[in-house]
Amino acid sequence: MNQNASTPSDVTPPQRGIKSYVVRGGRMTRAQQRGLDEVLPRLGLRLEEGCRSPEAIFGRRAHSVLEIGFGMGGSLLAQATHHPEVDFIGIEVHPPGVGKLLDEADKAGLTNLRVFHEDALKVMDEALPAASIDTLQLFFPDPWPKKRHHKRRIVQPAFIERVYRLLRPGGQFHMATDWQPYAEHMREVMSEARGFENLSVQGDYVPRPDFRPQTRFETRGERLGHGVYDLIYRRVPEA
């Protein structure tokens, strides 16, 4: 997938046919169901609303963070709670996680958080304008460890082109994984991507920044002996 070199930030990459996720079933708790039924209509964003900037969504100009695949929402909730001056948009397809985050955000009275219960690629292509996001986060995506499933990994060149399009010049793309082969795959893909520089002094990984809360998933992985790898890249301003 190539973008037009003359207007790279305005070109939308084509949809990929292979999904990077599988929607899991399971029972919903009462609180999770409340989040979907009562809070999603108020704090949720929909593709049908069209392409809108964070400024239009929140009614102010603030640092904007887009998190893709927030899981059960613990990390995103903590960030939004501790940084009311920042506006957060989360994307997740799994209903329990969406419901849980929305229920807790509503009970906490948060006004700086909105959620898409949608496919992330559709949101990136259809719902957010170019150069509208200051920070894009991708924490602990499914590593699809089996070789025959590597094509399902979300970190692929076409996805990185979407990231490039959405980030403001100077904006940051922050990834984290506890699967070393996937961390190496992320580095390999990013090394081939245009318009990014690795913020690691050694050109590999950075220590976990204070602004990324440590999740229960991450804590469990550390108990199992998994390393955790943070990668932060900055979108280089165009010349």
Which SSEs are present, and which pair or pack?
Blueprint: H1 30-43, E1 44-45, H2 54-58, E2 63-68, H3 74-82, E3 86-91, H4 95-108, E4 113-116, H5 120-126, E5 133-139, H6 157-166, E6 167-177, H7 180-192, E7 196-198, H8 216-223, E8 229-235
Parallel strand pairs: 1-4, 2-3, 2-5, 3-4, 5-6
Antiparallel strand pairs: 6-8, 7-8
Helix pairs in contact: 1-4, 3-4
Enzyme class: transferase
Binding site for S-adenosyl-L-methionine: 67, 92, 119, 142
Catalytic activity: guanosine(46) in tRNA + S-adenosyl-L-methionine = N(7)-methylguanosine(46) in tRNA + S-adenosyl-L-homocysteine
Structural summary, described in words:
Catalyzes the formation of N(7)-methylguanine at position 46 (m7G46) in tRNA. The chain has 239 residues and is α/β, with parallel strands linked by helices. The chain has a single domain (59-235), classed as Vaccinia Virus protein VP39 (Rossmann fold, 3-Layer(aba) Sandwich), CATH 3.40.50. It is 33% helix and 19% strand. It has eight helices and eight strands, in the order H-E-H-E-H-E-H-E-H-E-H-E-H-E-H-E. It has an eight-stranded mixed beta sheet with strand order 1-4-3-2-5-6-8-7, sandwiched between helices. The longest helix is centred in the N-terminal third of the chain and has 14 residues, at 30-43. The protein starts with 29 loop residues before the first helix and ends with a strand. 38% of the residues are buried. Residues 1-15 have low confidence and may be disordered.
